[in-house]
Write a structure and sequence with these properties.
Length: about 450
């Protein structure tokens, strides 16, 4: 904490000094300086989709030469050259094989951004903390039990040094998820959350993704290692991270949910098949690299262990997460999300399917026909207009659907700026709330435990 306080004090003095000298905004000193490490996932670029007043526009990049870093730089350049609200990032790139050691020795920044190959990510996080560097990491931070132990070390050391270690949980900023959480806090509308069971959980989160899709209006090219669970991680420890986080955040925000309060009850995983033509379509490669041959069957089809689901409990409340990867979405559709939180008075259900024209819609469905909840819903909608301006609702077949203005539906790519601003707020405050840090540890405890159980 002493080091972070000293950093904030120096920042205050530096900014004050600039003001005294009458400097222009382009000359002022910035408290946050980013160092991007091995940006093999497009999420690294999306962190820079917007500019932030406290962040230096000069970003130092340390990565091995190749398509991964080229894709990252190309996407940042698209942000810099777009016609509406272009960014002004300046990328300083080091491309040697010793890129990580070079970053540690030069240390031109104070925040490491890491989003890419997950095989060494947790090691990078721990080493960054050892070298007094804050960490802003894409999920997953951890893909196995060994990594979880390293993360525990990193989080403990970060606390001792006053450093901030945080992962990018974009789905908290999706408007229907935010609204589902807010409605579940109303005892008049929702009641109390039920305990549920393994077969009928209180909370279910299901996410369907696709290997081939568009990002920023162009087909996404994925690196071949993305399909290797030893480098990317299995689906049950990758996308499931978001779903576990949503359950904890939706129902237990502000609580210290330690690992002693949770348990994995059931877990399983299964594969998605890609033939050589599909693999080429999404990677641009004519053949499978050697490290993928272990997952290629006798018909030359790659079987990726991308899918998984598990049920866990927090105290007596049961939650279920499911991750499904298909190759490509049907025409007119996209990645989809399903969620239900079951209450004693009403169930809050997010659907994104043919019924909703593949738009994400939140439904409020009473659990009893005898209970008229419409007055409670109307009052709550009126009360939260400040949080959700223009929000309304209308009759649906089993209750009501929430009518959300388009202005509140900003899209997945824009959520990265929202999470980044939250992280920057934590930096200004000098700390991350204790319950948030515990969520990180408990979340990865659950995903790695589920991964272990799914292999039995």
């Amino acid at each position: 904490m002493k080091k972070l306080c000293a950093f904030l004090l120096m920042t205050s003095l530096a900014v004050t000094g600039c003001k005294d000298q009458g400097s222009t905004p382009t000359e002022k000193q910035y408290p946050v300086h980013l160092m991007t490490v091995d940006p093999g996932h497009f999420h690294a670029s999306l962190v820079q989709r917007d500019m932030y007043p406290e962040v230096d526009p000069v970003v130092h990049v340390y990565a091995p030469k190749g398509k991964d870093v080229e894709s990252y730089l190309n996407l940042v350049e698209q942000f810099n050259t777009r016609s509406e609200n272009p960014t002004q990032w300046e990328e300083v790139v080091y491309g040697g094989g010793d890129f990580f050691d070079k970053m540690l020795s030069e240390k031109p920044g104070n925040v490491m951004v890491v989003a890419g190959n997950n095989q060494k990510k947790t090691e990078y996080i721990l080493e960054a903390v050892k070298n007094d560097i804050h960490v802003y990491a894409d999920k997953p931070m951890v893909i196995d039990s060994k990594g979880y132990e390293l993360l525990k070390q990193a989080m403990k050391l970060a606390d001792e040094k006053g450093l901030l270690v945080y992962d990018i949980m974009t789905e908290r900023f999706e408007v229907t998820s935010m609204l589902q959480k807010r409605l579940s806090e109303s005892k008049e509308l929702f009641g109390e959350i039920v305990n549920g069971s393994v077969d009928n959980p209180a909370i279910t989160k299901e996410s369907v993704h696709h290997f081939f899709k568009e990002v920023n209006g162009k087909p996404l090219v994925r690196p071949a290692w993305f399909f290797d669970v030893e480098q990317q991680g299995a689906g049950i420890v990758d996308v499931a991270t978001h779903l576990v986080d949503l359950i904890l955040w939706s129902c237990f925000s502000g609580e210290m949910v330690g690992t002693d309060r949770v348990a994995v009850k059931t877990a399983r995983q299964w594969t998605t098949a890609l033939d050589p033509a599909q693999f080429k379509q999404v990677t641009g490669l004519d053949s499978y690299p050697g490290y993928l041959k272990k997952d290629v069957d006798s018909d030359n089809v790659l079987n990726v262990n991308a899918n998984g689901e598990f049920v866990f409990t927090v105290d007596d409340i049961h939650g279920k997460v499911s991750v499904i990867w298909n190759f490509e979405a049907p025409a007119g559709t996209k990645d989809t999300h399903f969620s239900i939180i079951r209450g004693s008075k009403a169930n809050l259900i997010i659907r994104q399917n043919a019924e909703t024209n593949y738009q994400t819609v939140l439904f409020v469905e009473p659990t009893s026909d005898k209970e008229d909840l419409e007055p409670a819903l109307r009052k709550l909608v009126d009360d939260i207009q400040g949080e959700f301006p223009g929000l309304g609702f209308e009759k649906a077949s089993n209750g009501w659907s929430m009518v959300i203005p388009d202005a509140l539906k900003i899209g997945h790519e824009a959520h990265f700026a929202q999470v980044t601003r939250k992280y920057l707020d934590f930096m200004k405050a000098g700390e991350i709330p204790a319950w948030e840090k515990q969520f990180i540890l408990t979340k990865y405890f659950l995903t790695t435990q589920a991964f272990n159980q799914s292999k039995n």
